[in-house]
Amino acid sequence: MVQIFLDTASLKEIEDISTWGIIDGVTTNQKIFLAEGGVDFKKRVLDICNVIDGPISVETTQTSVSELLDEAREYASWHKNIVVKVAMYGNGNGLKVVSQLAREGIKTNMTVMMTFNQLVLATKAGATFVSLFYNRSKEAGENADQIIKNYVSLARENGYKSRLIVGSIRTPEDVATAISAGAHILTIPTKILAQMPFSKRTEETIAEFDKAWQDFLSLRKAEAKPPVTR
Ligand code: E4P
Questions:
Q1: Where in the chain are the domains?
Q2: 3-state secondary structure of 132
Q3: I want to staple 168 with a disulfide (CB 3.0 to 4.6 A). Which of 28, 38, 133, 228 is the partner?
Q4: Global pTM?
Q5: Which of 5, 7, 111 to mutate to test the pocket of ligand 1 (most atoms within 8 A of CB)?
Q6: 56 by DSSP, 3-state: which?
């Protein structure tokens, strides 16, 4: 079954949506934290870990390999469910970091990936999760749906352990297409996820059934009235 992660650092959103019983994890990044204003970063990450018992992705922000490794080790030490996000830098530094962290048993989410080749490299480096940025990939001229299909079938044939996360989701239709293409995990912004239970026709049908029920109750009431005696 596909897993669903929330793509947010809003504790309120996470608490609200977690009651739906469908959230398996959370992903964050620098832009997502910027949207939260001046929150205490570590406290917020730990608060999220207390609400969701699943992988919580926290992104590294340094540039050199040694600084990225130090930052990743620090985040991983905060909580057992923390997954360290490392970007697919074009100079290969992200791969160096992910492969070293894999040797240390630290879970990683190799991120900001647009191409099939990037996903394969991240998988070979030992990333726990590999993140395809669905809409950004399309903007770069890639066929993101075909990338998902090809990666998932390669992963199945070769028994890859990495799990494919599809992010950069902008509409409920993106979610349906990516799941149909075989994505292992979708990470979805709250405002998109919140639209997913809704269908205009479902709402109309519920209203139709509610009306029928009220009519049924009125009938029962009318039948229950004692007969009029003269
Ligand atoms: C998730 O891991 C990504 O950081 C996120 O989905 C990126 O989304 P964006 O393309 O809307 O910034």
A1: 3-198
A2: strand
A3: 133
A4: 0.94
A5: 7
A6: strand
**45: closest CA among 19, 17, 10, 70?**
10
For residue range 140-158, what is the model confidence (pLDDT) as tens digits? 999 999 999 999 999 999 9
Tens-place pLDDT, residues 19-76: 999 999 999 999 999 999 999 999 999 999 999 999 999 999 999 999 999 999 999 9
Would you call 81 helix, strand, or coil by DSSP? coil
Amino acid at 50: N
| Annotated catalytic residue, options 42, 43, 85, 211 | 85
Residue nearest to atom 3 of ligand 1 (CA): 167
Helix, strand, coil percentages (3-state) for the chain, rounded to 5, are 50, 15, 30
DSSP-assigned beta bridge partners for residue 7: 27
Q: Is the pLDDT of residue 230 over 70?
A: no
Nearest to 29 by CA among 50, 5, 51: 5
The conformational region for residue 179 under phi > 0 = left, psi -120 to 50 = alpha, else beta, is: alpha
Rounded (5°) CA angle 138-6-64: 70
Atom of ligand 1 nearest to the CA of 29: 4
Residue 102 phi, psi (nearest 5): -60, -40
Match domain 3-198 to its CATH number in 3.40.50.920, 3.50.50.60, 3.30.1240.10, 3.20.20.70: 3.20.20.70
